[in-house]
Write a structure and sequence with these properties.
There is one protein chain. Strand 1, helix 1 and strand 2 form a beta-alpha-beta unit. This protein is α/β, with parallel strands linked by helices and 109 residues long. It is globular, with a radius of gyration of 14 Å. Strands 1-2-3 form a three-stranded parallel β-sheet. It contains four helices and three strands; from the N terminus they run E-H-E-H-E-H-H.
Length: 109
């Protein structure tokens, strides 16, 4: 499986909702990555429902709308907001890896 050597997987979707986990690419990517034992999973989406956030399991979920004043700003600044979310995810991954290296807890936040 192509995911076996991966330690980080990031996927994305315009709107992360319950349907995202019922045969859509983002849900399948997360499912396959989890089965392959990928340690760090991330999703960057335009908007995220509470149900989808709960169904994402241990994945870090980032909503562009939550990073903007309103949905139209999220659309206008999507590229920058995706970069910011990816940078935040990378920071979390590095912090977790450092904690694991030191034998500490996996602090999800």
């Amino acid at each position: 499986d192509a995911l076996a050597p991966a330690t980080v997987v990031v996927t994305g979707e315009g709107r992360l909702d319950a349907a995202s986990f019922e045969g859509k690419v983002v849900g399948e990517v997360l499912s396959r990555a989890a089965r392959a034992g990928v340690a760090h999973l991330g999703v960057i989406a335009g908007s995220v429902t509470d149900e989808a956030r709960a169904r994402a399991g241990g994945a870090d979920v980032f909503s562009l709308e939550e990073r903007a004043f309103d949905p139209s700003e999220a659309m206008e600044r999507a590229a920058v907001l995706v970069e910011e979310a990816a940078a935040e995810f990378a920071t979390r991954v590095l912090e977790r890896r450092e904690a694991e290296r030191r034998g500490g807890d996996d602090s999800r936040g």
